Amino acid sequence: MDDEQKLTQLKSLLNEVWDLRRVVRLLQWDQQVKMPIGGTHGRAHQLATLSQLEHVKFTSEEIGQLLEDLQPYAGQLDPDANDARLIRVTTRRYKKKTRVPADWVARKAEAASEGYRAWEEARATDNFSLFQPYLEKNVSLRQEYAEFFKPYEHVYDPLLDEFEPGIKTREVQQIFDELRPQQVALIQAIGDRPQVDDSFLHQPFDEKKQWDFGAEVVTRFGYDWKRGRQDVSPHPFTESLGLGDVRITTRFMPDYLSSAMFSTFHESGHAIYEQGIDPDLDRTHLATGASLGLHESQSRLYENLVGRSYDFWIHFYPRLQEYFPMQLANVSLESFYSGINKVEPSLIR
Amino acid sequence: MDDEQKLTQLKSLLNEVWDLRRVVRLLQWDQQVKMPIGGTHGRAHQLATLSQLEHVKFTSEEIGQLLEDLQPYAGQLDPDANDARLIRVTTRRYKKKTRVPADWVARKAEAASEGYRAWEEARATDNFSLFQPYLEKNVSLRQEYAEFFKPYEHVYDPLLDEFEPGIKTREVQQIFDELRPQQVALIQAIGDRPQVDDSFLHQPFDEKKQWDFGAEVVTRFGYDWKRGRQDVSPHPFTESLGLGDVRITTRFMPDYLSSAMFSTFHESGHAIYEQGIDPDLDRTHLATGASLGLHESQSRLYENLVGRSYDFWIHFYPRLQEYFPMQLANVSLESFYSGINKVEPSLIR
Fold it and tell me: Could you tell me the pTM of the whole model?
């Protein structure tokens, strides 16, 4: 085989791996959105089997050999060319994944799936003790994972690398060391001033109208409904099951407008990023976001830089008032804008 | 390995195969119930990859060797014991599947998935020509499949065997040769008498109330909602994604009561059969209905023998009248019973 044939063969093997990855995602999406509770144990088995298969297929000697053989070829390409990036990104992932035993992958997939179910029940019944043993098991599995990457500078480095390739815990600490004093000062300064009134956001808002307004806005953002759908789940998320099938979820609070609205804006940002991926990259390890940081930059762009901006609401606030005249007819654009930008410490942020 | 260890090893391999089978079913269920149209090609790839993987895993030499080694052991067991049946049923399927090339499995899964999408569109727009090329491709794939089983008595035998293991086209023809003259005579005799009035079934019926009544009845039949769910799809079906996750679908006609109601009864019959499978058989080739004939016997039991019986409606008709007083308050139980049992030739039956 010459280099181009090897590259074609590599892509064909990666296509199979990537199909498995997406099927794992469908199993997860379905568990969170549709699956009846009776499916829990069977789903955990399915996730374990599929995740392990994906792992075994990806860490095969054949893929390793092709990647090794293709290094000189990749070196001759424009480093920004898709093929050069594919070889680089895939080689990096290959080197990582081959340090992880397949049985750990199966155990982790099963524990995560069982743990999700326990989390859901603990959340619904406000009873942390239901979730605690599952959390402990999942944390211990993560610790086990870190050990595969010894020696490390910090135990969190191998885990962090899953979200933001290459970054070190030390660097994140430096960023926060610099930001934290400024943030604390800022929040204190805000706290010293009279608090903004956002009581109008805490009223009964019809769920269907919340859904419709959110859908209208994200359609205008560019979210393509022919290549996606929205459902309700306990915690909002975005899942790409293919470049033509990027799904978002949200959740509704009957007495608080901001929750579903901004989560829908947020998830649409993740989804638009995924829907925008070049079809040439489909079914390879380039057919996804480059990192969690980049992904969050896109979701928060739509949620905050756009969705909490004054200019945005000049256009959309009259429309929102049409949806909810009883609640908002007497709230001015300026009050609304202040209300949705109210800053206060919360339990998670 | 002694025989018991070999059996344990066989089961463990079959568990993996069966997980893949169920994931294929989830991919199909999702395509018919939830997937946006943009997912079509990606889903076809996923189905091809997963179906092929399932096939390759199942037709492995390791499973073949274990089955061969276990034949004497199986011969010593009570022929009705689960393990004896498992070895027998799995050996039969293994012998069949090893005659089928893996690439045919992939091509067929892809063609079926693409074909489903075309069928859906052709159906919605009443335009057969959209579906015709896909139908031709799928028929030609089935013809190709039959060739793997040459010599055969009848080209349909290898296909029929997928639905009803062991039966021959000749036998089905004999059954129909005997039944047809009696059926024709019966339908003619019915046609000679004054037709039953079922006009009250053809009125507007609120969709949500149709849903609720159907759900109430199948709950009483024993359908377990903690191990299942109902959705809407273009054509009603049942899919088992696990013994704890057996899903049904239905479709609603706004102006005809019988359609969704009897299809819900029907699918619940399929589902109750699947939900009733012994958990000891889970994740093996015994964790499903024994044949299509047995499956239809269960669905039609609930749809017809129960759901169209007079005694059933003595109990449920007053309840149905509460759901639809405007439409049914003035229709007697006897008229209703006659109406739902009206016999007339249709395009499919």
Answer: 0.95
